[in-house]
Target: Large ribosomal subunit protein uL22
Amino acid sequence: MAKGHRSQIKRARNEEKDTRPSAKLSYARMSVQKACFVLDAIRGKDVETALGILTYNPRYASDVIKKLLESAVANAENNNGLSKENLYVAECYANKAPTMKRIKPRAQGRAYRIEKRNSHISIVLDER
Model:
């Protein structure tokens, strides 16, 4: 058990908190693998380059991730007072979310399971 009063414990926890601007999308209707193809393309790039890549990428995930990146940039400008020109994508990752299980009727009374996968996508920006 941690020592100290509850307020001291919370204060210590908040000091360790990551203050970099970020945005998170929960339960995105795409698999982690498909989201990671797009995330790998923008990891480490500056924001302007990343937005350009996402704009002209034909994958479905790129539209969703572009909207998320714009949200992270807006968080950086409004909450942290950072300039858009100095920002780059420090971290971006997709984690597995709960899978929706559906049933597809097949021949001779059989039923096949269809798994509709979801993902949690996170983008963390940082200043150069």
